[in-house]
Each structure stands twice: as C-alpha cells, then as structure tokens.
Amino acid sequence: MRIINSNISAAAIINDETVNNTESISVFILGESKPYENLDLSNNQSLASAVIIIGVKIKDNKSLSIISLYFQVLKKNESHNDGQYSCSFFNTNISKWDTTGCTKPQYNKTYDRYECTCNHLTTFALIWSPNLANTKYLTAQDIASIIFLSISILCFIAVIIHSCTTRLLSSVISMNARNLLPLISSASTTILFIFYIALGMTVYTQTTSEKETKCFLSSSVLMFFVYFFLIFMFCTKTSIGYFSYLRFVRLFPEPSYRKLFVLLIISFFISIICTSFAVGFNSNSSYNITQLYENKLCWFTQDMLHYFMTIPIGIFLLLNLVTIVFVAKRILNHVRNATSPHHTYERMKQFVLVLLSSSVAQGVGWLIGPILTFVNADVGNILSWFFIVFSGLEGVWTILLYIIIRSEHMDKPKRYIDGNKRMKKFLLASVKNKK
C-alpha cells in the first residue's frame, strides 16, 4: 500500500503482520498539536508536523511492529533550510523526542513530504533540529574513511614502486608481470577507492542545500564509475579465487594463465553489463534509482539498493565462501600429508587464505550499506565503522599478498639448485652401483 494523496499532512501504514497480531488498534492524527510543541525544547529543536498517536493491544510482544510514516512540514520556515528533520517518537521515560527504532526520513519531492519507518508503535512526529543539520562539516567517520582508503591506496602504490625498483636494480630477483597477476584484485580495489573518494569530495563540495536529493551530472558520472569498479572488484577477486581453486584443489591438469585472462575478460564484460543496466534505468527519471545522501554521496535509492548491491554482492560473497570451503579442505589434507622442505605449499596456503579473506572482508563491508537503510542510528553508526575498518584492511591484504608472492619467487632458485644437487647425487650413486 502507498499513500499518493499529496494533500494529506500526515499518514501511517501498519504492516499486515502487526495488524494480525493485535487485538485492537487506535490511530489519532493531531493537525493542531500545540500540547506537544513545548514538550521537548532541548537543542533548540521544534515540532514540524502533525502528531500521529498509535494505541495498540498486542497479542504477542515478541513479534516486531513495523509502521511506515508520512509527514508534511506544516509550518515552513526559512531558518529550517539550515536544519535537519528526523522521525521521532515521544519517549515518556525521559520526556524527550527520541529517534531510536526509526529510520532517517527521506524527502519525497513529488509529494513534498518526508517518509520513514519505525519498529514500534507509540507517538510519532517530524522534528526539526538545527544542531543535526550541519552536514557541510565532515564527521569523524568521514575523516577516518578518507584516511583508511588513502592508506590502502598508498600500500598498493608502495608495492608497485618496490616491484619496479627491484626489477631495475636486480634482474635475478625481479618478478615478471605474470607473477603479479593476482594483484589485479588489489589494483581494481585501489581504483575503486580512488573514484569513491572523488565521488564523495565532489558531492561534498558542490551541494549546498540539505533538501537537495537529486544527483547532478558529475556526481552521477562518478557514481557509475564507482559502481563499475565495485562489480569489477568482486568479479576479479572471485575469478582469482576460482583460479586458485583450480590450482590447489583440482591440481591436474594445472590451469594455464590463459584461463585467468579469460576469467578477467569475462569479469570486465559482467561489470559493463551491470553498469549499463544501471545507467539505462537512471536515464529515465521516472524510475528514480539514485539520490544524494546527506550532501556527501550520490548512490542508489533505498528501494534500488537491494537490486544493484545486495543481490550481486551476495552472489559473489557466496561464491567466495564456497571456494574457501573447498580450498580449506584441500589445504588441510595437504598439511597432514605433505613434507615440502621449502614450504612451497605452506606459502600457497597463506596466499589463498589472504586473497579470499580480502574478498570476504570487502563483501561484508559493502553489504553494510543496504543494512543501514533499516536499522536505527546507533546500530548504523557502529556498522559504518566496520565498513571503514574493512576498507582499511585492503592495504594490509595487498602487502601480505606481495610478500607471499615474492617469497615464493625467491624460493624458486633454491629449489632449482637443490634439485640439481639431488640429481647429481642420484647419478653418482647409480654410477657407483654399476661399478
């Protein structure tokens, strides 16, 4: 059910499960809500809408009640342009308006109203707060996110510089491009982070009004670049993970690097197709698939997040988890039976685990975005820190991968020399036996 009458100042929709779980429901909408105007004047906040009062008698208190709320601002004030609105309920325990259990209201330009959902049934209203409005200042999370993403980018650049320097100074210990192919997953993530920072800073510096929800041209272009590299990152990580599965689970025949090239080309086209669908839908304004979030990011709307983010990322995450199970099983069998003096397969075990851990960490991190759409502010704040930390770990994964690849490459001459020594001993022993 949807409320489409633009003349309604306030409305509420209770979900079917809640209705079926109640013995009685009473709903009052107070257009003239003067008794509530002075109940909580802390932080200079004020009542901005009609008040919706819900009275229910619940059969089973264990079930969750979901209510969708729609508010129009009754008394528009120019000073409110510098503030922020929040869906709140009146908490009788502390005698204050509280946002716990309610999502951040989204402004619907078509009907000139704010829309949100709450997970309980009490007394609701739209509250204006001047102290929450100043989104032109970066929060601690914003600054931490930029720092962590930048560290990951610098780690990848450091790896490339070290590899190139080593190649120039010593041809013996230098690695060719084929040895560094697994780092393509890190390269795609690094490019993603660069465009993500560019998108955030572009939106932050070029938006002025808190009510502005439509993405402008440059932000839309950067957003689709971010989305392309997001899908490409998960495709490449999954492809390299599958290639590692072929090498360490299905040992024979050993896959050629041509197969990896084919997988990467397929990854590129999958990313192009997904991005093309997103651009196509966005070209029709009636679909309304993108919006500005708090003057800091242009991204998919809450309704579209699950189609363009949750489903594809969930698929990639599942594939990587399945790969981890098969590779871990093969590694355990090898650890029990193998006796390699140079620990070759021990390093390969570490390589696969680091690679797949990177993919899973990014998958979990980016899935936090859709989760933020239906959790309260406190939980959302904690989950946002998880995304920041997982993003920062990408630099650690990159350095670990490079160290493992380099160590494996350095061991090859040793294995060659030891192999020659064993061959000479075998030939000498054969000659002595013949004599």
Task: Describe the 3D structure.
This protein has 435 residues and is α+β, with helices and mostly antiparallel strands. The chain folds into two domains: 10-132, Sandwich (Chondroitinase Ac, Chain A, domain 3); 140-422, Up-down Bundle (Rhopdopsin 7-helix transmembrane proteins). The protein has helices spanning 16-20, 34-37, 140-169, 184-206, 217-248, 257-282, 302-337, 344-371, 377-434; strands spanning 10-14, 22-30, 46-47, 51-58, 67-71, 84-91, 96-98, 106-108, 113-118, 123-129, 290-293, 297-300. The strands form three sheets. Strands 2, 3, 4, 6, 7 and 10 form a six-stranded antiparallel beta sheet that branches. The radius of gyration is 29 Å and the shape is elongated. The N and C termini lie far apart (96 Å).
Key words describing this protein structure:
435 residues, alpha+beta, Chondroitinase Ac, Chain A, domain 3, Rhopdopsin 7-helix transmembrane proteins, 2 domains, six-stranded antiparallel beta sheet, four-stranded antiparallel beta sheet, 12 strands, elongated
Strand content: 5-15%
Element-level helix/strand string: EHEHEEEEEEEEHHHHEEHHH
Class by helix and strand content? alpha+beta
- Stretches where pLDDT is under 50 for at least 5 consecutive residues are none
- The separation of the N and C termini measures 96 Å
Q: Averaging pLDDT over every residue, what do you get?
A: 79
CATH topology of the largest domain: Rhopdopsin 7-helix transmembrane proteins
In the CATH hierarchy, the architecture of the largest domain is Up-down Bundle
Count of DSSP helices?
Answer: 9
The number of strands is: 12
Q: Which shape, going by the Cα principal axes?
A: elongated
CATH class categorisation of the largest domain:
Mainly Alpha
- Taken together, the total number of domains comes to 2
Largest sheet: 6 strands, antiparallel
- CATH homolog superfamily of the largest domain: Rhodopsin 7-helix transmembrane proteins
